Request: fold
Amino acid sequence: MSTTRMLVIGGTAFVGRAVVEEALTRGFQITTFNRGQTNPDLFPQVEKRHGDRDGGLDALGNGEWDLVVDTCGYLPQVVGQSVALLANSAGWYSFISSLAVFADFSGAGLHEDSPLAPLPNPPSQEFLANYGPLKVLCEQTVLGGFPDRSTITRPGLIVGPNDKTGRFGYWLSRVAEGGDMLAPGAPQQPIQFIDVRDLAAWTLDSALNRKAGVFNMPGSNQPVTMGKFLQACALTTNSTPNYIWCDDDFLKAQGLVPYFTPPMWTPAQGPMAGMGLVDNRKAFGAGMRVRPMADTLRDTWAWMSGEGAGQSPLVWPREEEQRVLAQWAKRQ
Reply:
């Protein structure tokens, strides 16, 4: 069997790094394309081509690849450049999209054909304000350029070693600190997240097995609740915090923002209520596999305690948590 030739657009940050690491274990012949600015010394054994995906793709003018993995496409006109250039030199295009493409997260069971978020009128390419709608257009660009030769994967919260966003790591750090600790909502509230290494393995498997189309990738096929997650964080960090469960209405009244402050909080009612209940049956039916939550927590904590020390910020300030807990105590 011939060696799979893979081009990764990106390849040195979080998701792209995991894709390259997984591909190396499979013996792929790997080329990365990026600006050469993030972790430039990673992966000395792979071919590295440098440029800018917005108008600077000259380095990809020659070469053929069985598989392209696009880990960092956010604007349709930029994604369109790589799609057009590689349409005849690549066999398959795997695009990492996002669950942010959906128009409405208020209900449970969002599936691949649920309504998608439209661009505002008049249209705007402002990235942060229109992240989801722009990802929709990126998906359409890939599907149009690689019909029946592309996989669109929609992860939600991506976690694991090398995650520098601090969203998942916040809970490990905070639980490890111990003491009175705010726990958001209710213990039975469902949450979803995907280990970056499982996402990487799926990305390669789905391409090799020609799983064309769109797949939600929110996380495990086993229900995970905030209560079970925090208990697992305590076991991982060998800590015994005192969880103070504050209800959704109270947290909203304090001006907290669901899913962000604190991270991963998804109220049972409201516009974000379905974030922990996205349908993932299609991906698991197509061969998706995930590791146990305990393994993800263990490896993430090991990274945070070693190589990643100081790289996973406490994204919800301790002072803000204490302010909210003080208000909670007054209410009791």
